[in-house]
């Protein structure tokens, strides 16, 4: 088979770094790569490097939170950040997600480590733990690639614009001669691979610990979310239930705001972790700076972030009186002659400004996934679905939905609670996309059949691989 150099996989090959433990992902200095995948220390260092890539601004360090909100319809953009997020907020062509190369580089690292594990000089329990973690992470990277660059299965607005999923690379590449010219796999093939990885993860990932690394609870949770996007509602319900059995703790109404001020959110099943001051992303790129002008809560008046991505009045009006979640949206400080309401979920809660651990999934989302799955599965269970959504509504301080809320009204209630509960966590854009819905925005509507729903594959990938088809109209 013809092979060429692929920039997305070989921009950088393995970078090995030592660390104190899996719990503290803090790369320090390189080690002998010839021995790196034979010893517990080398494998731990490589695992730390895999985790550290999630902090990239192209991933959970920024774009899968801040850019995702800017692209969607809950937010408006104030041009007081040197133009940052303005083009994303206007859904301008080519101003979208750019996780392609970073994701494939890390997938390659995972593939190499998976191939090395069977012959490594490590205990079986450690081998299983590492395999469980990195299989869940490989599923996460493919899931995010699919969410950015492909339609969900069966959800393309027209066959003429449905070019499948993303290429599947499942073997490691150590030099350019090993790169294959792969075409895009089908959506079904990519989802099947995610299922396969998560089937291993839910049996081998650590049962305890987290959320600063992958556990079985997160593997079950991610499985439920992947299944929801795949419209596989029976599995979405089942895996959400199993995740909740392992980690079902919820914030209370009284602790809800305070829990967002903790370094690690008590509800998190998995967080992208920042551990040292040197990892701060800074005023120009961080999630905190994107969302708020504050570097601390009142009475502090110290101006810090740009506060470019802020809630629309329409979004704020969705919160009923007494909803505790509304407390997380408050006046920022005067920048560029304006004071507006901003989101304060991310406020340097690690203790260092512009540096926040980022929850990838929280327990609250599991109740909302299960509520939707219970209502949309072939044999709907309205009572169970209502019970789940009421867990979230009542915790917020709202009256429960009663038995008169059924069918489409109940489904809309679930969607509303998703919108309110997961606001400013990077969910809204993907939530609308998986449901086949366009967006109504002051900067111009984005219908679901608009090509800007999908991100463009990087042009260098299209130029280097004639088998790779670009998304429509790019």
How would you describe the overall organization of this protein?
- Helix 2 (40-52) runs parallel beside helix 6 (124-149), helix 8 packs antiparallel against helix 9 (233-246) and helix 13 (363-376) runs antiparallel to helix 15.
- This protein has 474 residues and is mainly alpha-helical.
- The strands form 3 sheets. It has a two-stranded antiparallel ribbon. Strands 2-6 form a two-stranded antiparallel ribbon.
- It has a domain at 7-59 and 99-177 and 185-258: Serine Threonine Protein Phosphatase 5, Tetratricopeptide repeat, CATH 1.25.40.390.
- The chain contains 17 helices and 6 strands.
Under CATH at level 1, the class of one domain stands as Mainly Alpha
| Share of residues in strands | under 5%
Principal-axes geometry comes out as globular
The quaternary organization reads as: single chain
The CATH topology assignment of one domain is Serine Threonine Protein Phosphatase 5, Tetratricopeptide repeat
Portion of residues within helices? 25-40%
Number of strands: 6
CATH architecture of one domain: Alpha Horseshoe
Q: Helices and strands: which structural class?
A: mainly alpha
Alpha-carbon Rg, integer? 22 Å
Largest sheet entry = 2 strands, antiparallel
Uncertain runs: 1-34
Provide the spatial order of strands within the biggest beta sheet.
Answer: 1-3
The total of helices stands at: 17
Termini gap: 28 Å
Please state the average pLDDT score: 92
Element string (H = helix, E = strand): HHHEHHHHHHHEHEHEEEHHHHH
